[in-house]
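job 3f2a | input accepted
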Amino acid sequence: MDTTADTELNKSEGVTERVTLSKIDQSMKWAGIFFVASSVVWLMIGTIFALIASIKLHNPNFLASLEFFTFGRSRSAHLNAMIFGWANNAAFAVALWIMARLCKSAVRHGGLLLIAGIVWNIGVTIGVFGILTGGLTSVEWLEMPVAVTPILALAYIMIGVWSVVAFVHRQTGHVYVSQWYVLGGTFWFPWLYVIALVMILMVPARGVVQPITNWWFAHNVLGLWLTPIGLAAAYYMIPKVIGKPIYSYYLSLMGFWTLALFYNWAGIHHLIGGPIPIWLQTAGSVASVMMTIPVIVTGINHHMTAVGNASAVWRSPTLRFVVFGAISYTLTSLIGSAMALREVNEVTHFTHFTVGHAHHGVYAFFTMIMFGSIYFMMPRLLHKEWPSANLIYIHFWTTALGITGYVVALTIGGWIQGIQMNNPEIAFLDVVQNTVPWLTARTIFGVCITIGHIAFFIHFFWMLIGKTQPLNEGPTLLQRESDA
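job 3f2a | predicted structure (484 res):
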């Protein structure tokens, strides 16, 4: 057996693979940098509004003389800056880059993609400014003025079509699970957005159909848009960095199709006890409980892929964030299924427990995975290393500890709040007063997260405009990343 010939062949194939991926990365370079830079800027803007809204919950006089910063406007500006600014820009960058790499197909007409990104961010800017000046709609997750809708719709069509084009022109026969999730999210998001806009704002449906549609939309933006992109990134990053294939391709497909089947119904459990048909409430609860299937399947797949590689997970800046996010996905999803049970829902509904749960999903799961993905992606787009291991370390620990404390504080405080609200012997004002310590803790942990965001902001633009060490695409790449 000629092992020397096999070794040379493997080396040749490895070099060819790296050259192909490098060409793909270069085709995505300017659009990818723009999307990530935009997401980082929106992350900081959203963080500022988050702190303002959080402080106002226990100190209503904070910035009370400025109408731009009332609680309603600050919270809505925070929500939209984070979802449409940070989350969507990061999702566009990561999803398109992963799709192009897995398809072994360079991004076509990257200039038009860049223009689409500019149009999207102009729309978000106008929308957030409209919220701050009093033009908000007061429909959660759809607060931006209706006039912004055509801008966002046009931009999304221009952006979303790229993943489909890349898939159609793919150079590989195998379809990876990450591609399933990216294509699913790309299809589901415009469907959700357009239907919600039409039925709530443009041609409003009557009566309780509006809140049903609102919860269906708000819940599914996380479950059928951000979740697929987050899972696509996790399924790509964990095997890529560790250097071994995903544990089970068939389990991953099972997780995808059960997510598509059950999550669409799950948001209705937030209306338990409301003036809507009992069968609809029950359907929402059943679907939420059935969501344990894709969650457990995905958790097994991620765990079995990473098992035995704890040292690599701990050393890799990418995997620290991604694995934290993957674990958070399992935890927040199981808690969400529990919240669909009537006995639990009657305690947690209308409390800060729900707010903590929302942040557990959007931040601890999705945002942490996006952080890890950006740490992996940017050196390949810029072809240079991140300049500071210490800033990565600060970023991880402040955000990981911050969001953990944030969720724990609101979970415990919200549960106590729910029990007290259901006790007729406790005055409502006393219940409100008893939440103040938990809300203060929320602000403290929010400041901790803010420190991490500042470190990330500084680090990203330092890397973008500064001179740093060139990226080594040789055999020591994983070791270099682990050392960071």
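job 3f2a | The two ends are 40 Å apart (CA to CA).
job 3f2a | closed
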